[in-house]
């Protein structure tokens, strides 16, 4: 006679139980299009704000003021006006992760696409149109453990999840410039003394996250159990970026040649709170494994809410940076940035099944520090590496999830460089970024160490084919 076991509270037992799991079914393998393989991505919307365009990944994930003329920052629409002309950019990301708790350990390798988009801007123009799509959150894990349970014997628990949210942006940006006259030898030169970069873009967040928990009992006289949860989310808002660039001083020699200058930037990005529309499906069912396939036998619980209403939080980034330029091409910049999102203020609007027992919503915070360098001495430097832009950074991020009272935290050091595509006879460039970091909650919990390689390209028109330039002849 087939017997059903008394219900075990196994759906989401809290991180401590699940992460002893590290007989991880996440063995070393490659998962195409998988953007995350972290047990910490099981909660809520998954890990949020982890992936950046390569140039900004190398700067510790900064988004407010360390901007450049060849790659825009998808989270900051004001960055589009720093581009010199129309630019298309795309990127990919390779990841290697090592997980450890106590004596148990596992590794995983996987790849995923990164941000991509296009900015349409006339060469030397003040306006820019923006279209881009980038990852907003990522969820992916495959965890299992086996053990003996009183009354049922040997059983295996499996926890699997995949998906994530993406952000689609369509926007516009404009720069307003102020000028002044400065002495240069026996002459005067009109220069830019300050600039105000403004940008606004729609911010459409969409995607699906699915989670499955399975209890597989080896004894065939017992039925197995499976819980499946699927959430489709969509939210529309707008975000705005602003950067103010102020020249501190500039110096020219007696012949009127530029010698050096120093400027300061202040910037911010703001996203207001908005409505969240979700389609949620939960199902608990008894199953039996036949030939390695779980066959549903009976449904113990089913819930479907096709238009559950919630709220997405407001977020704010603030930063400043100092920029030094020298006449021989040397450029140096350093910046600091703070970002926060008030997930705790909208937590009550989320469906309870989005979180598990022992997990609560918290305000997310992050600190970023970045450095950027272009080498000087144009006559002596290497024809390729001497024209590169080098960068490094550090960051510390608190995810909006606290597990048993301890918030999920990530910290990493970053680096990267940008190389011009000299043979293209354009301003197109290759970008590389690297992150070395770790993620955990507290001492003794699961520790994740990751190495992330970002690579991308920015394509700009060949100088004889500049777009949006009126022809001088018919």
Q: Could you explain how this protein is built, in words?
A:
By secondary structure, this protein is an all-beta fold. Helices cover 3% and strands 61% of the residues. It has three helices and 19 strands. It is elongated. The chain starts with 14 loop residues before the first helix and ends in a 15-residue tail after the last strand.
Proportion of residues in extended strands: over 45%
- What sort of overall outline do the alpha carbons produce when their principal axes are compared? elongated
Structural class designation = mainly beta
Largest sheet: 14 strands, antiparallel, barrel
Mind sketching the topology for me?
Layout: H1 15-18, E1 47-48, H2 54-57, E2 87-101, E3 104-113, E4 116-120, E5 127-149, E6 153-184, E7 187-217, E8 224-252, E9 258-271, E10 274-290, E11 293-312, E12 315-326, E13 331-341, H3 343-346, E14 359-361, E15 364-374, E16 389-403, E17 406-420, E18 429-440, E19 447-459
Antiparallel strand pairs: 1-5, 2-3, 2-4, 2-19, 4-5, 5-6, 6-7, 7-8, 8-9, 8-10, 9-12, 10-11, 12-13, 13-15, 14-16, 15-16, 16-17, 17-18, 18-19
Short note summarizing the structure:
By secondary structure, the protein is mainly beta. 3% of the residues lie in helices and 61% in strands.
Which labels suit this protein?
single chain; 474 residues; mainly beta; Porin; 14-stranded antiparallel beta barrel; 3 helices; 3% helix; elongated; disordered N terminus
């Amino acid at each position: 006679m087939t017997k059903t076991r008394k219900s075990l509270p196994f759906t989401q037992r809290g991180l401590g139980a699940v992460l002893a799991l590290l007989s991880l079914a996440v063995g070393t393998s490659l998962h195409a299009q998988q953007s995350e393989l972290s047990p910490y991505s099981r909660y809520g919307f998954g890990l949020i704000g982890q992936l950046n365009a390569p140039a900004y990944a190398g700067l510790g994930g900064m988004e407010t003021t360390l901007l450049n003329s060849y790659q825009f920052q998808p989270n900051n629409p004001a960055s589009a006006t720093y581009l010199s002309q129309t630019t298309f950019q795309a990127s990919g990301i390779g990841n290697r992760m090592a997980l450890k708790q106590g004596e148990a350990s596992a590794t995983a390798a996987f790849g995923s696409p990164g941000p991509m988009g296009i900015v349409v801007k006339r060469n030397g123009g003040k306006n820019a149109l923006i279209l881009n799509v980038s990852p907003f959150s990522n969820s992916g894990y495959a965890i299992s453990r086996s053990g003996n349970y009183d009354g049922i014997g040997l059983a295996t628990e499996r926890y699997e999840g995949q998906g994530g949210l993406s952000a689609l942006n369509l926007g516009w940006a404009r720069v307003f410039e102020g000028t002044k006259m400065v002495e240069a030898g026996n002459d005067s030169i009109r220069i830019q003394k300050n600039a105000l970069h403004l940008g606004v873009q729609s911010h459409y967040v969409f995607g699906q996250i699915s989670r499955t928990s399975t209890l597989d009992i080896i004894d065939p006289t017992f039925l197995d159990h499976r819980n499946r949860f699927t959430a489709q989310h969509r939210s529309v808002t707008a975000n705005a970026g602003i950067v103010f660039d102020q020249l501190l001083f500039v110096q020219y020699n007696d012949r009127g040649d530029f010698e050096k200058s120093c400027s300061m930037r202040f910037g911010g990005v703001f996203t207001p709170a908005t409505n969240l529309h979700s389609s949620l499906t939960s199902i608990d069912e008894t199953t039996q494994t036949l030939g390695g396939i779980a066959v549903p036998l009976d449904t113990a619980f089913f819930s479907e809410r096709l238009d559950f209403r919630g709220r997405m939080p407001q977020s704010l980034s603030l930063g400043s940076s100092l920029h030094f330029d020298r006449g021989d091409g040397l450029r140096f910049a350093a910046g600091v940035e703070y970002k926060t999102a008030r997930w705790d203020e909208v937590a009550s609007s989320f469906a309870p099944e989005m979180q598990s027992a022992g997990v609560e919503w918290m305000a997310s915070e992050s600190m970023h520090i970045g450095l950027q360098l272009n080498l000087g001495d144009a006559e002596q430097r290497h024809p390729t590496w001497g024209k590169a832009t080098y960068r490094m950074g550090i960051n510390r991020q608190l995810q909006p999830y606290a597990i048993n009272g301890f918030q999920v935290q990530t910290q990493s050091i970053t680096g990267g460089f940008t190389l011009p595509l000299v043979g293209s006879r354009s301003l197109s460039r290759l970008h590389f970024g690297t992150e070395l970091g770790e993620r955990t909650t507290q001492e003794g919990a699961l520790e994740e160490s990751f190495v992330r390689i970002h690579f991308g390209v920015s394509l700009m028109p060949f100088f004889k084919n500049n777009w949006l330039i009126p022809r001088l002849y018919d």
